[in-house]
Amino acid sequence: MFDSWQEGRRVVGAALSRRNVLGAAVALVAGAAALAPAAAQDKLKVAAIFSTPIEEPWVNQVHEALLKAHEELGVEYKWAESVPSSDYARVLREFARDGYGMISGDAFAAEDITRRVAREFKDVAFVMGSGQGPAEPNFAVFDNWIHEPAYLSGMIAGKMTKSNILGSVAAMDIPEVARLVNAFCAGAKEVNPAVKCKVSFIGSFFDPPKAKEAALAQIAAGVDVIYAERFGVIEAAQEKGILAISNMSDQAALAPDTVVTGPVWDMWPTIQAAVRQVQAGVFTAQDFGTFSTMTKGGASLAPFHAFEEKLPPDVIKMVKDREAAILAGDFRVPVNESTPVSE
Predict the structure, then answer these.
(1) Which of 23, 100, 251, 302 is least enclosed by beta carbons within 10 angstroms?
(2) Gene3D superfamilies given for it (predicted)?
(3) What residues contact residue 51 under an 8 Å CB cut-off, 6+ apart?
(4) What's the CA gap between 332 and 152, in Å, rounded?
């Protein structure tokens, strides 16, 4: 069962080969900084806290951007992964007391805890994935606003389905997930009104075996193109010979003849902006959400790879035209965060 999943860990978590593990869950590259502009010889210390393993695609995209910040912006970077909510406060306080001038990661699993700790360390810039708003003076937020390429993916799925039954296997019923699933289905219905959409929530951000099981159930019910919002779905699609849409990163290497494309989240524009603000001493609490949109370079549609030759030319043109309209501001993908319902 786990062969493809293990391969996925290698592909999606390629950055792991670069880490130097200290303890059970922490990797370190050391240094020093604060919110005020650092002296020329100093380096900003940036830490990240993640509730899931680094292999989880949402987390991996943040991690990759922070690794890039280490390489291109000269920051020193330390991270902790698989941190349970019960341990969040301790890990965050350790980072803050150890001189980390910026702390990033996911606050979703421990929203109240993370915000409370941020209030204790007002000289530290917190830049956290969150479904809520920023909080003065030092708590900034971001999220994966990749509903635009999710919509484009849906348009492709709507044209490629033969059964007119599309599926989505997603984490849980929260706005951040719902808007992607809804955008995918809306894109499909625009080009194929006969489409019916099925959705399953696995109740976890990272449970590949459970996601695979949910995908197999949908495939048994007639789904022939499936949106792998969670890791584990692509394996099921490959085994059953149906098409899959990946999520967060370009995952074609997991199953080249299965993965057509998918929404990609690039956290670099967000991390680059936040780090530069902290380095310059001008950081403020704000919502970095727009940096994750297509026009800012934070979202895109993954390359078609092998499907460049397999997709009908009119389908590729349709998607390219709509992508251009989004980038030009001539088409706005609706944001629908209501609970997706299976049809």
Answers:
(1) 23
(2) 3.40.50.2300
(3) 59, 82, 83, 84, 85, 88, 106, 108, 109, 110, 205
(4) 12
Nearest residue to 103 via CA among 33, 55, 56, 42: 33
- CATH second-level architecture of 3-143+267-292? 3-Layer(aba) Sandwich (3.40)
CA distance 82 to 53: 5
| Cα–Cα distance for residue pair 273/195, rounded to 1 Å | 40
Enumerate the CATH 3.40.50.2300 domain ranges in the chain, comma separated: 3-143+267-292, 147-247+312-328
Q: pLDDT tens digit string along 55-74?
A: 888 999 999 999 999 999 99
Sign of the four-CA dihedral 314, 144, 61, 102: positive
d(CA 2, CA 232): 9
Residue 137: asked if its preceding bond is cis (omega within 30°), the reply is yes
Supply 147's token pair.
Answer: 């509903």
pLDDT band, very low/low/confident/very high, at 317 (cuts 50, 70, 90):
very high
Does the pLDDT of residue 1 top 70, yes or no? no
**Cut 0.70: pTM above it:** yes
